Amino acid sequence: xPYSEEAPADPDLNVITVTARRREERLIDVPxxxxxxxxxxxxxxxxxxITDIANYAPNxxxxxxxxxxxxxxxxxxGVGQQDPVSGFEQGVGVYLDDVxxxxxxxxxxxxxxxxxxxxxRGPQGTLYGRNTIGGAVKYVSRRLPQxxxxxxxxxxGTYNLAEGVVTASxxxxxxxxxxxxxxxxxxxxxxxxxxxxxxxxxKDIWAGRASFxxxxxxxxxxxxxxxxxxxxxxxxxxGHRLIPGLVSGAPVLENVFDTRGGLDDPEQEVESYGxxxxxxxxxxxxxTLRSISAWRKDDSxxxxxFDALPAVDLDVPGLYQNEQISxxxxxxYDNGGPLTGLIGAYYLDASADTLFDTRIxxxxxxxxxxxxxxxxxxxxxxxxxxxxxxSEQLSxxxxxxxxxxxxxxxxxxxxxxxxxxxxFGGAGVPFGAPGTDFDGERDFKKFTPRASxxxxxxxxxxxxxxxxKGFKGGGFDPRGVGSNAPDLNDDGVRxxxxxxxxxxxxxxxxxxxxxGYKGSLMNGMINVAIAGFYADYKDVQIxxxxxxxVNGLPNFCGIVSNAGKATFKGVEFEGSARLGAGFxxxxxxxxxxxxxxxxxxxxxxxxxxxxxxxEVQNTPKWTGSATLAYxxxxxxxxxxxxxxxxxxSKTYQFEIPNPYLxxxxxxxxxADIVYTLPGDRxxxxxxxxxxxxxxxxTSGYTFVATNxxxxxxxxxxxxxxIPTLGPEGTLTAFYxxxxxxxxxxxxxF
Length: 749
Prior knowledge:
The protein is an all-beta fold. Helices cover 2% and strands 57% of the residues. It has three helices and 44 strands. It is globular, with a radius of gyration of 26 Å.
């Protein structure tokens, strides 16, 4: 919501502070479409991880990716990316205490010990850099208090949910504080793997965070050293087949959370950890020096059974190994005069390695296609952003960022017969020449400006207009097949340059225009934020894979392309109204008209524009939410009681419409009751999610024949889709959580 439901009616106190422009400001003063939820609001609503934010923010999709608990799929205003393999960049930046998470693995952040979460919509390339072309999600953890503090929270609910979080901190002296949190998050499965006898859609996570802080609270120097660790031992998520097995005749299961997938190697595990240091020095005269240093690493092993059947038809064991080092320096200026702003520099050195088998054992003598894609990124940027008050009512902001981006890729694709690759313990024998054995690099440079003008007739009203540019880095398709590269000069040899041109894709960019109004009315009783936007999206990257032949054998191939142009336009509304007697009505509404103006693909060796037959994925036309809440005293205690309805209209899972996978519009109902005993030390809550037990698809896999132009699925003589990879046919779906009810009890000391 744009304003805290707890904000008092006194306009001098009705202040929500955010850091959307990398400096503390009133929310109402920021000329950016922005949703912020405080830690208290998230706790009242029983939020579990950052994907819950999408229920409240307009034109936002945040979901756990296919077959995983912890890899994030994020879209904002039609811009995003759902392919997690190395080489593909995300379109929405995720920040943990101002540290950019370069990869989507381990980016479904669990919510504990959080100060607030901010969702910035629209390109944020000036202040946040590359890959924030759609927007940014900021997770801001709490700073340590100046006195001893101890908090504990336990939850128990349906599906054997049992969770606990303990947070403690203490000052060592007047300047130094230490603290940390430990979280144990567990839940039974929503269904079962009927082949392996394991729970499906379960949760088994340990997480922790430790902090060392010095200064702050009025001191000229603030230093925070923070480490975090998460280990996810949840079972792999198995998909639900939407069609019977076309060879085995296996029927479609009644429970959408059940699966029959037989792949159990490698053992599912996600481990992520990092260390960061943030320092601020008040140098006087309105100048502040800030440094943000970070190192992060995550490793994921996962068995993905695409066909969701016991026999090996289309199975993909995979490994994701990511590591990054980043350094950011900022100089902020604010001496109370008309000019404020900052200049800065940013450096990122990151590696992303993806290794996986594609096993098709039941045919072609046990064929495995092994892929190893190592993609390294080195980025340097300088940036600045300044605001100048032309008068008490009129303010101008301008900024820009120049980015140097280097991508290096090493890609190997090798066929094995008779078993899987040695990387995954297989006994397969290498067969034929590698389909790809490529080493190459590309450099990209981009300037991303931003400008806005704000008119504030009073301090409680802000009318603004803005322009911003964003871009997402180019790269190399890790699933591309170099041996299929065209011989561009007809000399009979596929040169390194021809293979590089075939495997690489260009950056995409967007020019976004926005007008908006933020206001606090009736002495703070009503708060609203309204925005209209228009975005011109160019060189849109469309990653994907299809069945193909490699050196004469059936396989799959990457088909990444810069498809062409798209136009997004829409409106967003967020607001809250105090109805009196402790009741508050708040909500959001988003509308987006997202369409491709040009979508060029190669059909029968001829470039063809298929824009009329393609949709923008993971972008419902309508999103909305409404929350009615009561927050007031019950005797000497406090009571929060609220109910929320959230709605999403029809969602296309991929650019090609798929009647099996696409999700029709649906609404979710949740309700929360939180009772705080006198003294504010003990809190008891009951939370219900998806109370009407709605079944809705969030993602899926498809390898069936379609019309190359229209994308229409082609059925065989049996009336079912014709498989293109594996004879059983792959059409599997993953679903959002069913109805969950859980109770919590919290203690503060």
